[in-house]
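Here is one chain, start to finish.
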Amino acid sequence: MLNDISKLSDKFNKNNFKSKSVLITIHRRENHEKRLQYILKAIIKLAKIFKTHQFIIPLHQNPNVKKVLIETLDKFSNIVLIPALNYPNLVYVMKYAKLIITDNGDIQEEGTSFKVPILVARYTTERMEGIKMKCAKLVGADEKNIFKEASKILKQNKKATRVSVKNPYEDGKASKKIIKYIREFFKNERFN
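Its structure:
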């Protein structure tokens, strides 16, 4: 899987992927225009200071977002712009990320499964469980706040950054519960 992902960009660094990667996904309409510029300024500052880290940004299909990301970030050697990832590759990148910066609700939930700290580039979220359990932190589209909170994490080694609380979104037993429910459902006499 790492080979598949590394082929997406010449800038991709396999050597530090599992210890110094930051996954960034920004696409929500609320983060377009000025807010997107603030977020990108924070990412640029982080990339300049944390030069040994690679900032992996799958490009969203929205042409307005994609164009701005390419024009603003492509010139930085440790900012890796790649095409949108299929689900298995996205999960793989999440699993090995040192940090995730996102405005995506699903990634807020799934990233916690891998104990990755998550900075939510929004001012509100429907996924408050992660905020309350300190698996994720709301940083808004605030350049200074994103930079400050990300820097705290990136200054540490990866092991020290792992989130130690229980995943508030799942217990890892969803498939067993689904199978049990389906079996019980079809045991019902109405279906015999």
